[in-house]
Amino acid sequence: MFYDRFVEICKQHNVSPSQVAIRCGFNKSSITSWKKNGYTPRQEILIKIADYFNVTVDFLLGNQQNESTVISDEDIKTALFGGDKPVSDEMWDEVKSYVEYLKTKYQNN
Questions:
Q1: Positive or negative: CA dihedral 102, 104, 105, 108
Q2: Which of 29, 28, 79, 70 lies closest to 51, judged by CA?
Q3: In 59-73, which positions are buried (b, 16+ CB within 10 angstroms) versus exposed (e)?
Q4: Tens digits of per-residue pLDDT, 45-95?
Q5: Whether pLDDT at 102 is above 90
Q6: What is the pLDDT of residues 3-56, one digit of tens each?
């Protein structure tokens, strides 16, 4: 059930469900209907919640068990550049270009 997964991820991130509603821009009363009626949020709300927690919609819906498989851009920047200095747009664009190059290279093999 979506509500259970939602409450659990809120606890993991030390934030209340109401705070998530406010920060994501949806009505707090929606949470009550998820709990009482077993409803699943509309797609646009699912996406906002997934973005907020940096997880996939599949994870929120219980279709993906391990949220740690989601790697954010910030995680990649820290891994590549050490995290002690800001990463410029130019640097990040080079990384993305190289990734596209590698995808093309290995798709053709």
A1: positive
A2: 70
A3: bbeeeeeeeeeeeee
A4: 999 999 998 888 888 888 865 545 556 777 788 888 887 788 888 988 898
A5: no
A6: 998 998 999 889 999 999 999 999 989 999 899 988 899 999 999 999 998 888
Burial of 29 (0-12, 13-18, 19+ CB in 10 A): exposed
Report the alpha-carbon angle 96-53-98, nearest 5: 5
Task: State the DSSP string of 51-73.
Answer: HHHT--HHHHTTS-S-GGG---H
CA 43 to mean position of chain CA atoms: 14
